[in-house]
């Protein structure tokens, strides 16, 4: 029996223990896996990047819409009467719900041809489409006492407001004070101030009235126009 030489055995052992070669298929599979991972990461990045841009654009659009909406809010009301024009600066912050109601009624033409149904000298002129005698009863005792008010308190004349009742059935009425009124905010919801046309208010105040403070001649509001600026 032939004997294998030690040197030949050593060579055979090295051949068996040597690393096996990496096939081309394995390399291609690895490359594909890496490519898929890179593509997935890139796609995820693009998705979130685009989403952030869209979100930023939406936020800017919403912000601009809010700014436009604020700029569209009327700041003045031009009250055209049979005696002349009265310009009122409107206050939204003090009575936002009443302010919104006034805007809504104005846009619907509610105040067109509304009569001044009560005129109480040194107190108020009252316009209404609904007969409410009780709405002006408490004002009748104030006319002779306005001069006794504490001058340090602000109970200004020429303020615009409406009665503190639920405005149903066309009952949104208007009060314009013609003298300082004590505890004015307890009596009406104030939402504006006359800044031009005080002489028109005073002319309406001077009309002749009957024993129930109703004008003997018709005095009315022709229309109310809303403006962003005067």
From TrEMBL:
Key word Amino-acid biosynthesis present: no
Bilayer-crossing regions: 21-42
PROSITE patterns, per the entry: CSA_PPIASE_2 (PS50072)
Keywords for this protein: Isomerase, Membrane, Transmembrane, Transmembrane helix
SUPFAM superfamilies reported in the protein's UniProt record: Cyclophilin-like
Pfam families documented for this protein: Pro_isomerase
KW Phosphoprotein (keyword) present: no
GO molecular function: peptidyl-prolyl cis-trans isomerase activity
InterPro entries, per database record: Cyclophilin-like_dom_sf (IPR029000), Cyclophilin-type_PPIase_dom (IPR002130)
PPIase cyclophilin-type domain segment(s): 84-226
Protein name per its UniProtKB record: Peptidyl-prolyl cis-trans isomerase CYP21-4 isoform X2
Gene: LOC107814333
């Amino acid at each position: 029996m032939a004997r294998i030489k030690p040197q030949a055995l050593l060579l055979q052992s090295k051949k068996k223990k040597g690393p096996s070669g990496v096939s081309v298929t394995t390399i291609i599979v690895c490359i594909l896996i890496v490519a898929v991972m890179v593509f997935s990461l890139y796609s995820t990045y693009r998705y979130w990047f685009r989403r952030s841009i869209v979100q930023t654009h939406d936020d800017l659009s919403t912000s601009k819409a809010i700014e436009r909406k604020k700029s569209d809010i009327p700041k003045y009301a031009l009250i055209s009467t049979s005696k002349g024009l009265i310009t009122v600066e409107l206050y939204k912050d003090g009575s936002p719900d009443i302010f919104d109601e006034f805007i809504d009624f104005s846009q619907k033409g509610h105040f067109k041809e509304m009569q001044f149904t009560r005129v109480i000298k040194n107190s108020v002129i009252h316009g209404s489409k609904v007969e409410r005698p009780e709405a002006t009863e408490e004002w009748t005792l104030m006319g002779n006492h306005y001069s006794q008010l504490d001058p340090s308190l602000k109970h200004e004349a020429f303020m615009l407001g409406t009665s503190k009742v639920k405005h149903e059935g066309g009952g949104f009425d208007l009060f314009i004070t013609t003298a300082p009124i004590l505890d004015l905010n307890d009596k009406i919801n104030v939402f504006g101030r006359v800044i031009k046309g005080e002489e028109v208010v005073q002319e309406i105040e001077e009309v002749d009235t009957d024993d129930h403070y109703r004008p003997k001649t018709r005095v009315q509001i022709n229309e109310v126009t809303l403006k962003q600026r005067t």
